[in-house]
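Per your request, structure below.
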């Protein structure tokens, strides 16, 4: 388990379906250590603090294991060629991770990195801005149907993190599974 990329972005005005909206969904990978504070990563912003950010949603993480799915559906939607990889940060994630998928995580699990400790707080619920970020109208719906939602993290111990950092998973109380919570919240429980 490790950090593949650390991405940050600033809130900018973007034309989404003929409406000018403020969004920070477009994140870009950065090199070197990034400071982690209670409200998120240095250099990162959230445009709508009612849906993103805050103490319980300070950092958004997404498994790289799901990138192949998005690459395929984007090619099917004729947004990009089949072989085009998905850029880290494309889904609005701050951390692109390897080895930690939603079905393996529980609310309260701790991700211990060399320079900080993060806690799994809740699954992401996608909004319409994901459609614009990925370039096709049904991206948010596909995230809900697939359960490939990623997850928010609270900062338990601030510090720094960077691409390549190993992650040690320390189990929390194991009462609420992240994937099951996402399915319950989105009405897609199986």
């Amino acid at each position: 388990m490790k950090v593949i990329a650390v991405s940050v972005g600033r809130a900018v005005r973007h034309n989404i379906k003929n409406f000018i909206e403020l969004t920070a969904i477009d994140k870009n990978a950065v090199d070197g250590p990034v400071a982690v504070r209670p409200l998120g990563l240095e250099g990162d912003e959230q445009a709508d603090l009612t849906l993103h950010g805050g103490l319980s949603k300070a950092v958004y993480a997404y498994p790289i294991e799901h990138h192949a799915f998005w690459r395929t559906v984007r090619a099917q939607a004729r947004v990009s060629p089949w072989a085009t990889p998905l850029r880290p940060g494309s889904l609005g994630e701050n951390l692109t991770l390897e080895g930690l998928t939603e079905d393996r995580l529980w609310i309260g699990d701790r991700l211990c990195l060399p320079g900080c400790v993060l806690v799994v707080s809740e699954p992401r619920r996608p909004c319409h801005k994901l459609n614009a970020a990925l370039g096709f109208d049904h991206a948010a719906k596909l995230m809900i149907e697939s359960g490939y939602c990623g997850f928010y993290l609270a900062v338990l111990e601030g510090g720094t993190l960077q691409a390549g950092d190993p992650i040690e998973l320390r189990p929390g109380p194991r009462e609420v599974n992240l994937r099951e919570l996402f399915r319950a919240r989105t009405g897609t429980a199986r």
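The first strand starts at residue 2 and ends at 8.

Regards,
D.
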